[in-house]
Design brief:
Chain B: Keywords: Membrane, Transmembrane, Transmembrane helix. Chain B: GO terms for molecular function: NADH dehydrogenase (ubiquinone) activity. Chain B: Belongs to the complex I subunit 6 family. The structure holds 2 protein chains of 2 kinds. By secondary structure, chain A is mainly alpha-helical. Chain A is 65% helix and 0% strand. Chain A is built from 4 helices and no strands. In chain A, α3 runs antiparallel to α4. Chain A starts with a helix and ends in a 14-residue tail after the last helix. The mean pLDDT of chain A is 85. By secondary structure, chain B is mainly alpha-helical. A two-stranded antiparallel sheet of chain B has the order 1-2. In chain B, α1 packs antiparallel against α2. The chains are: A mainly alpha, B mainly alpha.
Chain lengths: 123, 239
């Protein structure tokens, strides 16, 4: 068994064991302060930016970064397609398929729509 | 005779090593200006300059794929993200314009020397850098700390081998026949040769990590829009 095989078997087992221990043995007493995100003691973000902005701007940049990394990982196939043959093509298509699933999820949730803040007055 | 040529080998894959020095000097200058610039936007711009300098350094070393990846990913996505966050935050510039960091320069110098001197005495260094300025500084520090110099530069009798070694020039043979280029792989094609055949499980791990990032970010920030909630209210009042 190579170290790579050991890695691939051992890491999911370890992660599942740690999650299961937390699920079984940890007490569960939530209240609102504990559930909210930890922001170094600050309670609200309202005083720290010039105006409220929606979070879909961040989603735009993050999705651009992720698909940029996907393109970057496809570059080596482009220059070595002859050497890798049909096997490499199938591997690259499987990689694309996994990320296309993520793309379909994002399209379905309509994640890239920014809510318009225009106020429509009816005259 | 076959068209073989001798090319002086250096770390820069045939380019002049002066370019490496210029790029590393530019990188250090940009790094210092990232920390000491007052306006945070100027700070991020110097961070972009730092990324471009390091990308040029990597390309000169011959690992061109990683260098271009630095420009594509770091400058193209991450530094832009930094810029947008800096624009959207309300940073009070009046507090930043106070000049109260002159006291910490001696402390910075002491910490810098205390970190770099043990580090450089442990890591193996290029012995062909005998005549460089940093080597003289390091030799002087050693003579103060340990009371003995590592290598006495002035005694040339005993050190002929080291001096000859410092003048060593490596050369590599290349050819301009076209069929020799089949055996000369660039860095990106050799990555492609390996990543899609021998190491494809790591490749799929990378794809699953990217998928996880996508799904997690979208589901954490998903807000049902007003249209879908209106439809839900309509459906509830119908029954």
């Amino acid at each position: 068994m190579t170290s790579q095989t050991f890695f691939f078997i051992f890491i999911p087992i370890l992660a599942i064991i740690l999650l299961a221990l937390n699920l079984i043995l940890a007490p569960h007493n939530p209240y609102q302060e504990k559930d909210s995100a930890f922001e170094c003691g600050f309670h609200s973000f309202l005083g720290q930016n010039r105006s409220e902005f929606s979070i879909s701007f961040f989603i735009f940049a993050l999705l651009f970064l992720l698909f940029d990394l996907e393109i970057l990982l496809v570059y080596p196939y482009i220059v070595s397609a002859y050497v890798n043959g049909i096997f490499g093509l199938i591997i690259m298509l499987l990689f694309f398929l996994v990320l296309t699933l993520g793309f379909a999820f994002e399209l379905g949730k309509n994640a890239l729509s920014i809510e318009s803040r225009q106020v429509h007055y009816i005259k | 005779m076959t068209n073989l040529m001798l090319v002086p080998e250096s770390l820069t894959s045939g380019f002049s090593p002066l370019g490496l020095d210029i790029l590393s000097f530019g990188a250090i200058l940009s790094g210092i200006l990232v920390i000491t610039a007052r306006n945070p936007v100027i700070s991020v711009l110097f961070l972009i300059a730092l990324f471009v300098n390091i990308a040029g350094y990597l390309i000169l070393l011959g690992i061109s794929f990683i260098g271009l990846a630095y420009i594509t990913v770091y400058v193209g996505a991450i530094a832009i993200l930094f810029l947008f966050v800096i624009f959207l935050l309300d940073i009070k510039l009046a507090e930043l314009h106070q000049d109260n960091n002159k006291n910490s320069l001696p402390l910075g110098a002491i910490i810098g020397v205390a970190f770099l001197y043990p580090l450089y005495s442990i890591i193996p260094s290029n012995i062909t850098e005998m005549k460089s300025f940093s080597f003289y500084v390091f030799n002087w520090l050693n003579s103060i700390v340990t009371g003995q110099e590592m290598i006495r530069i002035n005694e040339t009798k005993n050190l002929s081998s080291i001096e000859n070694f410092s003048k060593l020039e490596l050369e590599s043979a290349i050819t301009n026949l076209w069929d020799g280029n089949f055996a000369a792989f660039t860095q990106i094609s050799s990555i492609g040769n390996v990543m899609y055949t021998g190491y494809l499980l790591w490749f799929f791990v990378a794809s699953i990590i990217l998928l996880l990032a996508m799904v997690a970010a979208i589901s954490l920030t998903f807000k049902p829009t007003k249209a879908s909630s209106i439809i839900r209210v309509f459906a509830n009042t119908k029954n």
